[in-house]
Task: structure prediction
Amino acid sequence: MLTRPRSSLLHRRRGHDSNVSTDDFLPLSCDERPSSKRRVRSSIQNSSFTKSILAFSLGMLAFVFSLSLLRNSDKSIPIHMKFLASASSGIQKYDAVIVGTGWAGITAAKALLKDDVDNILVLEAQDYIGGRSKTVNLDGSINSPSMNGNFTNIPIDMGSEWLYAKSALEGNLIRGGHLKGIDTSKKRTLPVPPFVDSPFYLQTLVQEKEENIYSADTLNTERLEDDKAKDLYERVWGGFLEYVEEYRKSLGKHVDGSYGGVAEKYKEEKLTSDVDVQFINLAMASSEVDYAGGRNELSIFTVGDMSSTHYMSIPGVGYGNTAAKFAAPLAHKIHLKSKVTEIDYSDPNNVIVTFVRNGVESKVMAKTALVTVSLGVLKAGNIKFTPSLPAWKQEAIDGMGFGVMDKSVWPDKEWIELITPKGENSGKWTTFFNPTSYKGVPMLVGWIAAENARYMETQTDEEVLSDTMAKLKAMFPTITPPDRCIISRWGSEENVLGTYSFKIIGRNFRDDSRQLQKTVENVWFAGEAAAGGWYGTVNGACRSGEAAAKGMLEVLSASSPARSAI
Result:
């Protein structure tokens, strides 16, 4: 029997791919473990302007001196003294430059620091740390370390909201004291679309109008009785899952089809009731939110499983605040508002990274570089690679799906579903989450994805609020406008350009993800899209970041005689 669609973690409630192989990753821990060996630190970490001038004056002498010392293999001598010569050219040199401060980037940076590689630089285009973990706090701050542990604050997470229970990341955050507001002994399995325990509201047309165009006064909205809702779920949704399973078997292992395409076949062959058809349409809209891709883009092999999670967007926590607190030990290594524009890896021994900060272009040199920007940024070509990325890498980037899912944040059960008739507004703002019991204040979150989300991002806040309130008023006639409305627009954010990756029809996502993860010379790649079966999750981003750090450490050790001898 086919499992129900999984819950998103990166932006909503997805679980990991139940078919993920143990070969997808090296053994990882994501732990803040103490260094197992004594490491020799770099001599030029955080070089100041004064040090650069000194190196410029004495660079040749320092270079000759370091060569002489290295020949003697004296372990007490700083292993990177030879880097001083590069300062004379005006370019600071690092052991590692990391692009991005999402979970992949900060996990990799902390792993390097734990192994005493502290001559690193982390470049972040945004003005906050955390990437797609973005928390807007009650005081207006975004991703504030001080708000993690502040139980008077009400966080609103515009990106990731759920944390895997029993994961390495959970253990790491517990040990770091970052989950004090969460009772980690209590775990919950999140529902998936459509939600069996959700109240369903059914809209029907009172009178027909031209070409599927209707307005609020032509619609009748009523809550379905629980037994009718349960029947819809078990009969229509359960029947669809069985249909998909049989359809997959008929195609064979190496033939794919679209999620939406199979749904259309199911409606044509199996459904006769308009309500049944509307229910499947709702399920497709909810699945788009879950996976951030359009129903006709999603592979029928998208379906995964559910996992136990913790809700992070509660007072004293917040996913973005947690990311910033987790990265606090790296603060002096991070440059915010620093947008990387080019990565030149033409020299097999060094990588030149060009970035713009406050309108000023700068270049740095590194022995290794790690790229953790979103798949959307890679797809857009916003970072120039010199030479161009190999064809196998570019093909994987181009072939992977990267979707858009947004939220509109403003007593019944937690999840609320609206079954709408066919029309121009069908499927828009039909899934809502009520986190009031977690936050202690009235709040509602609406979800929209795929083409509907792309269109929404062209609207004004007032237009979005009007559309959302129209759906809510249909279900709750006495509802009043919110005191405040916060809307995400991830697809329009130039440093992200979407939410998370998904399995696109006709592609082997796991193969593409592995290709994305592979190094090109001394350039590594990490992030949720490079996480194999853990795509679309914070946990996957963390795992891929640590895997990259391990590879970088091996290269740094091999290139440093003193480190190799330790």
Summary: The chain has two domains: 41-129+319-399+507-564, 193-305+411-484. The CA atoms of residues 31 and 172 lie 5 Å apart. The first strand starts at residue 92 and ends at 99.
